[in-house]
Design a protein that fits this description.
By secondary structure, the chain is an alpha+beta fold. It has five domains: 272 residues, Rossmann fold; 159 residues; 165 residues, no CATH class; 124 residues; 241 residues, Helix Hairpins (Orthogonal Bundle), CATH 1.10.287. The chain is 75% helix and 9% strand. Helix 3 runs antiparallel to helix 19, helix 5 packs across helix 6 and helix 10 packs antiparallel against helix 11. It holds the Pfam family AAA_23. It is found in: Chromosome; Nucleus.
């Protein structure tokens, strides 16, 4: 369990800002003693602030929590709290928080949290230190103590002002308990879960609608895809026919490509020719540029010669006519370098002259500075001498008063000596010491007798309290037995149902809990089976609905398809109509061919009959002898020929019409096949599946009804168990308490101690009070004698001290009077020094004036010299710059001329001329090649014309079939394009993905709603069970503590009663109202408003101790701030004994820790009488008014 280790406080409340007060907490008990207002409760406030960050109420937002800066005469005060504690694992945690209060301009105070630090160290020595936000540190501390913040504030470290919260008004009491149980957070959690379930159910409904839409969209898309596949296969067949026809045209296209290759060769030759002509022009341009450069070179050479002549004149240079240009340029550069050196030498001479003049100025300045410094120091010395002269004169004046002071001191010394002699004569120190020793001996004897009587009194008192306990415990035992009997009678019927006739006497709660767990497991198992069946039923219902929808869809599609076929076939069977139409179409095709060839045949017949020897062209019968019939035959044949175009047109029109009708029938072929599939396969399968699912659904519904019927009995038993469980726990507890009470009565009877004296408890108490009174009188008499003795000795000591001080003063005055001649001599010496210094200052001032005049003349001479030198140097520099520019121009021209000469322009001119001649010959050759190719093209074009005529005739012959195939192809492509465009739309392209996604989303949300409902139900059930168990435990602890502590007979025990407050509406929001009641002989009354101040304090204390016992399983800390407030002596004694028993029972636990703050010393002595406590801490205020903590031994 977690315990506190140590606490350091500085600058908090009444604790000073300069000194740090330290507390080392002990186990199992740490005591703090001090008067009201000394700062005891500040210790609790510091611990709470370190652990939770909550400022005490009434601290003005922290401004009153830190020591006021006015008490330290500062503008701000800094405070610090350092708390070290061990968590339930044994790890060490140190929390440090630093705060500051600053005084603002208007006199107001500002509170500020400066910083927070946390150090963690585990039991293996690993350490970690961090600076975090205050909220993070507070949460971390609560987690390490393994208790909530509400328990820390309201139970473990409760301020004295708020310690009576259990008996506050109902609203505040409910708020406190809700914080402790975390009811608000749990209710919010349940509300959020309920709201989430409701939202999800609405969302599931919406998802179902969206899923239906996605399903319909998917069916539409599937139909489009099937139709697209059919059209694509048809288009492939048409494309195959077209490709075959195109292959027949390929030889002609190859011949055309050959012609195009020759044309491309001509184009390439022409391009080469054009490129050569372009290069020829570019080289001609380059030739002109080179000639121009040659002319510019001649001009530059002439300009170079002119610049050389100009430079010779400028530098006074004499050269021979045959001398080379390079030698002349070198001589010019040498002349230029000589001029530069002359200028530099002149500049050095000028700088040296200026340096000499500057050195003279510096020498005069140093003399002037030395003279001024000498004058300043002498003036300063003169002032110091005047001051010393004045001080010496003042000291000499004061000596005239010393004579009168010496006489006064001598008189005081004589008076002190007389008083001292008189005091010593009146006071006999030896006799006074003997009287004090006699009184001390009497006091010692009385104290020994008092100790003996105290022991006897305590024994008698213990026997008295033991008798009282025996009487009280006997009464309690009878009440508990009556209460157990009443509870068993109350639940007799329920126990009979649960246990039949064999009701257990012990461990009733465990047995009922076992029955409850067993039945809950049965109920849970049945509930799971019911949920599984319900899910199966829901799934099957959805499946049945889906199959029905599919069946209806197939039937509707079958109906539409049949209507479509009937509209085209007019009620006749599709296959018969298709066969009849095919036969008719073949007949019309034959007639069409006959009519097309009949014109040629009849023309041949006519020509045969028109010959000189006419004969029948079919049977070769001669009509030479029947020439009169020939004209009739010819006329009849010509009449038939004239009638053939009409018949051919009629036949072709009828054939087109029949072909269109045949195509329509061919398009319905897939529809007819689909009708057969639906009638023979799909609808029978769906009907069979529907019947099978409906049978399964009926079986599951019967099974679900049986399971729900089986669930009734376990739920009833569980309800009975829950109803009687708390009282069963109370019966078990009371039975254990009865056993403990019987054992305790036996122990108490054995604890009665025999006393050797015959005095009664009252006689011993009277004699003890009498002895204490005598001892008190003796102590007062001894104290007065001792005070008089000390006072007299102190008076004599003061007289001796005063006499010594006056003697010392007399000696000092005599020493001062001896210094008068020496002071007069010093005054004369100071006057001589002053006159001498004045003369020296005057002499130095004359020298300073002379030096200033010399310095002014030297500076004007240097300025004139610098100006003249600058003018001469500027003339030299201009001359040198002009020479430099001339040499640079010469060098630049020389470089250009050299570059031209190195470029070999003549050779380049010759090369370009040769290249031009070569290009001209290439152009002539290409012209000849071009002529040859043109002749070849002319021949190929003639051949191409004949081939194109053949191609056109071939195309014309196939035009009719191509147009028909093209129309069919365009029709199929149009349908494919429409279907593809439709399928490429987003709603069709992603329809399957959206369908699956929506199905999975719907299924997940449905399962999530089921899981959330199960979890919410389990959470509510857990919250109720936790609250019931904790309240039973709390009330049992409260009863035990009250009976052990309270010594009155008007209240048997107290307890906290809860009243369910179930929220309205559909949500099972549960909260509780609380009240503290007092019970007497089975009657309970609300304690608030009926109890005294002492009972209120005791009840609040007992409830806090019970809450700490229940909720602080891993935190053994409990702080009691002034627990004896408003309690009478009997209840104080019983409280101390109860606390002592608790400490004794927990002493073996290293992690139990009780902190008690009190101002009652007698309570502290009673509490520590039976405990092995070595020390306690006294809190008090020092001489400056700041609180301090002192460790004192017991």
């Amino acid at each position: 369990m977690a315990v506190l280790d140590r606490l350091h406080i500085r600058g908090i409340r009444s604790f000073g800002p300069n000194d740090e007060e330290k507390v080392k907490f002990s186990v199992p008990l740490t005591l703090f003693l001090g008067q009201n207002g000394c700062g005891k409760t500040t210790i609790i406030e510091c611990i709470k602030y370190a652990l939770t960050g909550d400022l005490p109420s009434g601290s003005d937002s922290g401004r009153g929590f830190v020591n006021d800066p006015k008490l330290s005469s500062k503008s701000s005060t800094k405070g610090s709290i350092k708390l070290k504690f061990n968590d339930f694992k044994g790890d060490s945690i140190t929390v440090a928080k630093f705060v500051e209060v600053t005084t603002l301009a208007a006199g107001k105070l500002r509170f500020k949290n400066i910083s927070n630090a946390l150090q963690w160290k585990d039991n293996q020595g690993r350490a970690q230190e961090t600076e975090q936000k205050c909220a993070d540190i507070d949460l971390y501390c609560a987690q390490k103590l393994n208790v909530s913040k509400a328990i820390i504030n309201n139970v473990i470290f409760c301020h004295q002002e708020n310690s009576s919260w259990p008996l506050e008004e109902a609203k505040k009491l409910k708020e406190k308990f809700d914080e402790i149980f975390g009811a608000t957070e749990y209710n919010k959690c349940v509300e959020k879960l309920r709201k989430l379930i409701k939202e999800k159910k609405v969302y599931v409904k919406l998802l179902k609608e969206q899923f239906t839409q996605k399903k319909m969209a998917k069916q539409t898309t599937d139909k489009l895809r099937d139709r697209l596949c059919d059209e694509e296969s048809r288009l492939e067949r048409i494309q195959t026919i077209i490709d075959e026809k195109r292959n027949e045209i390929k030889p002609l296209r190859i011949r055309l490509n050959e012609v195009h290759v020759i044309i491309d060769s001509i184009t390439e030759t022409h391009a080469k020719l054009t490129g050569l002509e372009t290069r020829l022009k570019d080289e001609q341009v380059t030739l002109g540029q080179l000639k121009q450069e040659k002319v510019h070179h001649t001009k530059r050479c002439e300009e170079f010669k002119e610049l050389i002549q100009k430079a010779k004149v400028k530098f006074d240079l004499e050269c021979e006519e045959s001398e080379s240009v390079y030698n002349i340029i070198d001589k010019l550069n040498n002349k230029y370098s000589t001029k530069e050196k002359m200028m530099i030498n002149e500049k050095k001479i000028m700088d040296e002259k200026e340096g000499r003049l500057q050195s003279n100025i510096d020498r005069i300045r140093s003399k002037l500075a030395a003279a001024e410094e000498n004058s300043s120091s002498k003036s300063k010395l003169l002032n110091e001498t005047n001051i010393k002269l004045g001080e010496t004169k003042c000291k000499l004046g004061r000596l005239s008063h010393s004579h009168s002071q010496l006489e006064s001191t001598t008189k005081k010394m004589k008076k002190f000596e007389d008083d001292l002699t008189k005091k010593k004569d009146e006071f006999d120190e030896g006799q006074a010491s003997r009287q004090l020793e006699d009184l001390e001996e009497q006091i010692t004897q009385k104290e020994q007798l008092q100790t003996k009587l105290d022991r006897e009194y305590k024994t008698l008192q213990q026997n008295y309290w033991t008798d009282q306990k025996i009487e009280s415990e006997t009464s309690t035992l009878l009440e508990k037995r009556a209460e157990v009997a009443a509870l068993k009678e109350k639940h007799e019927h329920s126990f009979a149902i649960l246990f039949k006739e064999d009701v257990l006497a012990h461990e009733l709660e465990m047995s009922i809990a076992s029955i409850q767990n067993r039945e809950e497991q049965k109920a849970t198992s049945l509930s799971k089976s019911i949920s599984t069946n319900e899910r199966k039923i829901a799934s099957l219902e959805a499946g049945v609905k889906n199959v029905r929808e599919k069946l209806e869809t197939q039937q509707e599609e079958l109906k539409r398809s049949k209507e479509k076929i009937e509209r085209v076939c007019e009620g006749q069977p599709y296959s018969e109509v298709l066969n009849q139409l095919h036969t008719k179409k073949e007949t019309l095709q034959k007639n069409k061919g006959t009519y097309r060839s009949a014109t040629t045949i009849f023309a041949n017949f006519i020509s045969e009959f028109e010959q000189e020897a006419p004969c029948c062209p079919v049977c070769d019968t001669s009509f030479a002898s029947k020439k009169s019939l020939v004209p009739k035959i010819i006329t009849k044949l010509k009449t038939k020929i004239e009638d053939l175009p009409r018949k051919l047109a009629d036949t072709e029109a009828q054939l087109i019409k029949e072909e269109e009708f045949y195509n329509k029938l061919q398009q319905l072929k897939q529809v007819n096949e689909n009708i057969q599939v639906i009638e023979e396969a799909k609808i029978p399968l769906l009907q069979e599946e529907l019947q099978e699912n409906e049978d399964k659904l009926e079986d599951l519904k019967l099974e679900l009804a049986s399971l729900k019927n089986d669930l009734t009995e376990p739920e009833n038993l569980v309800g009975i168990c829950r109803k009687v469980l708390s009282d069963a726990a109370l019966i078990d507890r009371l039975s254990q308490e009865i056993t403990k009470s019987e054992d305790l009565l036996e122990t108490l009877r054995k604890d009665l101690i025999s006393v050797p004296s015959s005095r009664s408890f009252e006689e011993t108490e009277t004699q003890l009070h009498k002895l204490k009174s005598e001892l008190k009188n003796l102590t007062v008499h001894y104290k007065s004698k001792r005070d008089l003795f000390d006072e007299t000795r102190e008076g004599i000591r003061k007289l001796i001290t005063q006499l010594q001080m006056e003697t010392q003063k007399q000696l000092e005055m005599q020493k001062i009077l001896q210094e008068q001649p020496m002071l007069e001599k010093q005054i004369c010496e100071y006057k001589k020094s002053i006159s001498k210094l004045k003369e020296e200052i005057k002499s130095v001032a004359e020298k300073v004036a002379t030096y200033k005049k010399e310095l002014s003349e030297a500076e004007s001479k240097r300025s004139e010299t610098v100006l003249n030198n600058s003018k001469l140097l500027e003339e030299y520099r201009l001359n040198v710059d002009a020479c430099s520019r001339l040499i640079e121009e010469i060098a630049k021209l020389q470089k250009t001329i050299q570059g031209f000469e190195q470029g070999d322009v003549s050779a380049r001119l010759e090369s370009i001329k040769n290249s031009l001649d070569g290009h001209k010959s290439d152009i002539e050759k290409l012209e000849q090649t071009k002529k040859l190719l043109i002749n070849a093209v002319v021949k190929k074009k003639e051949d191409l014309a004949s081939q194109e005529s053949k191609l056109r005739s071939f195309k014309d012959n196939k035009e009719l079939r191509a147009s028909r195939m093209k129309s069919k192809q365009l029709e199929s492509e149009d349908l494919i394009h429409k279907d593809t465009t439709e399928l490429n739309k987003k709603e069709h392209r992603e329809v399957v993905t959206e369908y699956k996604k929506k199905y999975y989303e719907l299924r997940v949300e449905e399962l999530a709603v089921i899981d959330l409902e199960v979890y919410t139900e389990a959470l509510e059930k857990s919250i109720l069970t936790f609250h019931q168990e904790r309240m039973v435990q709390i009330n049992m602890t409260i009863r035990e503590l009250w009976r052990n502590i309270y010594r009155g007979n008007d209240i048997d025990y107290i307890e906290i009663q809860t009243v369910d407050d179930i929220g309205g509406g559909g949500a099972r929001k549960r909260s509780y109202n609380y009240k503290v009641v007092q019970v007497k002989k089975g009657t309970d009354l609300e304690m608030r408003g009926r109890c005294s101040a002492g009972q209120k304090v005791l009840a609040s204390l007992v409830i806090r101790m019970a809450l700490a016992e229940t909720f602080s399983a891993n935190c053994g800390i409990l702080a009691l701030d002034e627990p004896t407030t408003n309690l009478d002596r009997d209840n104080i004694t019983s409280l101390s004994e109860a606390l002592s028993r608790i400490i004794t029972a927990r002493e073996g636990q290293k992690n139990f820790q009780l902190l008690i703050i009190t101002h009652d010393e007698e309570f502290l002595q009673t509490l520590t009488r039976d405990q092995s406590v070595s020390h306690y801490y006294r809190v008090q205020q020092n001489s400056e008014g700041f609180s301090e903590i002192q460790k004192q031994s017991l």
